[in-house]
Amino acid sequence: MDVVFYITAFVTVISTIMVITRHNPVHALLYLIISLLSISVIFFLLGAPFAALLEIIIYAGAIMVLFIFVIMLLNLGKETAKQEKEWLKPKIWIGPAILSAILFVEFFYLINIAHATSYNLQTVDPKAVAVSLFRPYLIGVELAAMLLMAGVVGAAHIGQHKKMILHRFLKEEDPS
Amino acid sequence: MKSSVSIEIVMLLAGLLFVLGIAGVIIRKNIIFILLSVEVMLNAAGLAFVAAGSRWAQPDGQVMFIFILAMAAAEVSIGLALILQIYHQHKSLDIDKLKEMKG
Lengths: 176, 103
Hints:
The complex is a heterodimer. Chain A is mainly α. Chain A is built from eight helices and no strands. Chain A has two domains: 2-136, NADH-ubiquinone/plastoquinone oxidoreductase chain 6, subunit NuoJ (Four Helix Bundle (Hemerythrin (Met), subunit A)), CATH 1.20.120; 137-176. Chain B has helices at 7-27, 31-55, 60-90.
């Protein structure tokens, strides 16, 4: 099973690198979905199947669809890709990247010389998660509900007045 | 389907993903990419929580992951509404062109 984990971790890192280096927003979204799926596989390997399901359903299913809707609404295309391509020239970021790669190799070495004892993971089933969620963490669930409520109201408020504000700005600029 | 990788490797992966998210926030100039990188960082934090929770076979890590998920959903909805608003007012998503906010 170790091989599976390492392959999945490799896929996760590669796809995340592709997310932050693509020029086209839709390509970056596709790579981000791959990254989410591979993190879900890692959750499954770690013995957390409920978190893996939530990762696929909510992250890759709901949040990514929001991003796709906004990108479709904004109609971002070649201009954005060209602008990001001009900004991401290799000579700008190659120096800091090499230096931080050296630091990362040192970090990896320091972690590996510590006694990394392997262990056998046990599966935490959804029942245990639900019992823990609705007994000791009940106040957290209520706070999350209030946060989501505030998010819904805030998003509706921010999205609602956009034409009015644009209109008012245009009205103020026209006489002056 | 149980893996026997050590907790250090999983934490290393989570840290690497978090660093990639920070790099994305720093190097990109489009607000949508910055929001995507924030999502990557939240995912890395959730991965660390789940790994630590499964290390001691406790459900607390997954509970924290659910809270992170709820927070990510709220943050994405607010952030995308703000992006729409900014685009309708400035006709651009370049953060260099939005300097008039003086943030």
